[in-house]
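Pinned message: reference record for DUF423 domain-containing protein
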Amino acid sequence: MARLWLLLAAFTGFTGVALGAFAAHGLKHQLSPEYLAVFQTGTHYQLIHALALFGVGLLALQRQGRLINLVGGLFAVGIVLFSGSLYLLTLSGVRGLGMITPFGGVAFLLGWLCLGLLALRLKPEHG
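Predicted structure (C-alpha cells):
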C-alpha cells in the first residue's frame, strides 16, 4: 500500500500546484474575489493533505496495518470531497455543492485522529 499512498501524494501534489497556478493566472479575471478565495482554499487543503499522504506512504514503508491505510483513505476522501466540492462550486456556481464540503472536512479530521491513535500505539524505542 505504500506505493499507492506515494503515488496518490504525487498526483494530488502535482494537481494541487497545477490548480493553484490555474486559479492565480487563468481564473483571476473569471471568478469573483470571493470565489477565487474559495478555490484557493481548496488548493491549500489539497496540498497540505498531499504532504500528509506522502507521510502516510513513508510510514507504510516501515509499518503495515489497517490503521495506516485508514489514515491514507480518509485523507484521500477528504481531498476529493473537500477540495473537489470547492472546485466544482466555484467553477459551476452551484451553491448546493457546498453541502459536500463539511464531509470532506470530517474525513480530514478523522484521518488526523487515526494518525494520532496510530502514534499512541507505537512502542517507545529504547536506545
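Pinned by admin. Summary line: The longest helix spans residues 33-62.
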